[in-house]
Write a structure and sequence with these properties.
CATH topology of the largest domain: Cytochrome Bc1 Complex, Chain D, domain 2
Order of helices and strands: HHHHHHHHHHHHEHHEHH
Number of domains: 2
Radius of gyration: 23 Å
CATH class of the largest domain: Mainly Alpha
Largest sheet: 2 strands, antiparallel
Structural class: mainly alpha
Helix content: 40-55%
CATH superfamily of the largest domain: Cytochrome c-like domain
CATH architecture of the largest domain: Orthogonal Bundle
Shape: globular
Distance between the termini: 62 Å
Strand order of the largest sheet: 1-2
Number of helices: 16
Number of strands: 2
């Protein structure tokens, strides 16, 4: 009987899609409407303050960060900028299987859209603030590949006035080597070790301030309202006619699956369609990324990061970091887990998943439908048993989420 009813329901949805019958707003229960409202961009609260970054909302810092974001001089070879991988026209991603700076990186480039609302950054959450995330690629050998003293000198040469207005005077760099870094190659590390502790601390402070300026810019990269948000507005007003003008029958059925049978909202919740948490969803691994343990590695790296929440470079005098303490307690539970990406996008940029395993949305949905075993750890998925028509409807709904950014156009170019 249950199987028969399931088939009957599927046939009814298919018939609605074929003949274009409108679904009334009463199609949604009061609880479902409340859930839809919680997903609407209109439920997104104002940007939370970043106590660790005192210039996070300073317009002057955003101007400086905007310039730094597009400045390719912030790299070893002078051709890699933040925008080389985080391309505004591609949802601040790069459409590559693996991010490429100086060399190819281990994972796909994540989007920056709406990232100011998150507590964790990168696929494995190895950084716990937007500004510490911005710093990591600058010295990474495969990304920007530069050095800390190189960047301090660049600030002195090209951005002295703007830096000084925000952070105070730059240190005297006359006797500082051109390339010195605690995480660079052997020569850069040796040069760094020859600096005094005071010199190291002051240069690292300049470096941290660069990250804070870039974060001030990135806080302005925000998602805009989509057709989904228009639909929720109409449903909550009880305007069935307008709701059915905004969404097709397939899109409505896909949304019903998203919050119901498919249980996508278990992880893709909140107005950003992300819980800012880490989940093992059994994504297969390529040979070149074998042994990628995800959050289990990121937690360890975050704890070792010199710019983490309770570091001396944080502007939060209390350095109250409950999320970081909680993370340490859970680190062992996160093998093979990766961060839930936001579904708020300007467009869906293939490939998908942290390692670009899938090339289109249908493959992603089929993965969740199958719920394969995880290569490491234990998958959280269970088979959904969705039919082909339901997968098509779910995909139709997902395609209602992309929308232009709620960001000033001049911020999207150098």
């Amino acid at each position: 009987m249950k199987k028969f009813l399931g088939i009957l329901g599927l046939l009814l949805l298919a018939a609605i899609a074929v003949v274009g019958v409108n679904m009334p707003s009463s199609f949604w229960s009061p609880d479902e409407i409340n859930l839809l409202r919680s997903l609407s961009l209109h439920s997104l609260p104002p940007l939370p303050p970043d106590k660790s970054n005192r210039v996070a909302d300073d317009p002057r810092a955003a101007v400086l960060g905007h310039k730094l974001f597009f400045d390719a001089r912030l790299s070893k070879d002078g051709i890699v900028s933040c925008a080389s991988c985080h391309i505004p026209e591609l949802n601040f991603q790069d459409a590559r299987a693996h991010g490429r700076g100086i060399a190819e990186t281990r994972r796909r480039t994540p989007s920056l859209v709406g990232s100011a609302y998150f507590s964790w950054f990168f696929w494995d959450g190895r950084r716990d603030s937007q500004w510490s995330q911005a710093l990591s690629p600058l010295e990474h050998a495969d990304e920007h590949g530069g050095s800390r003293t190189q960047y301090a000198r660049l600030m002195e040469t090209f951005y002295r006035e703007e830096y000084t207005a925000l952070f105070g005077a730059l240190p005297n760099l006359q006797n500082v080597p051109a390339h010195a870094s605690p995480v660079g190659d052997a020569n850069a590390r040796a040069a760094w070790d020859k600096l005094t502790n005071v010199e190291q601390q002051t240069i690292s402070r300049v470096y941290a301030n660069m990250g804070k300026a870039i974060a001030a810019y990135e806080r302005r990269i925000l998602p805009g309202a989509s057709r989904f948000d228009e639909y929720v507005d109409a449903v909550t007003r009880g305007d069935s006619q307008r709701a059915n003008e905004i969404f097709s029958a397939d899109e409505i059925a896909g949304l019903k699956l998203f919050i119901g049978k498919a249980n996508c909202v278990k992880c893709h919740n909140t107005p950003l369609f992300s819980d800012d948490a880490f989940h093992n969803t059994g994504v297969p691994q390529h040979a070149e990324t074998e042994n990628d343990l995800g959050r289990a590695e990121g937690a360890v790296e975050n704890f070792a990061d010199e710019f983490k929440c309770w570091s001396e470079f944080s502007d939060d005098e209390k350095r109250d970091c409950p999320h970081l303490r909680y993370m340490q307690a859970r680190a062992g539970e996160s093998i093979g887990a990766f961060k839930t990406p936001s579904l708020r996008k300007t467009q869906y940029v293939a490939p998908f998943m942290h390692n670009a395993w899938y090339t289109n949305l249908r493959e992603v949905l089929e993965h969740y439908n199958r719920a394969p075993a995880a290569p490491y750890g234990q998958t959280e998925l269970e088979p959904l048993h969705l039919h082909a028509a339901e997968l098509r409807q779910l995909e139709a709904f997902l395609l209602t989420l992309p929308a232009p950014l709620e960001t000033a156009p001049h911020l999207l170019a150098p």
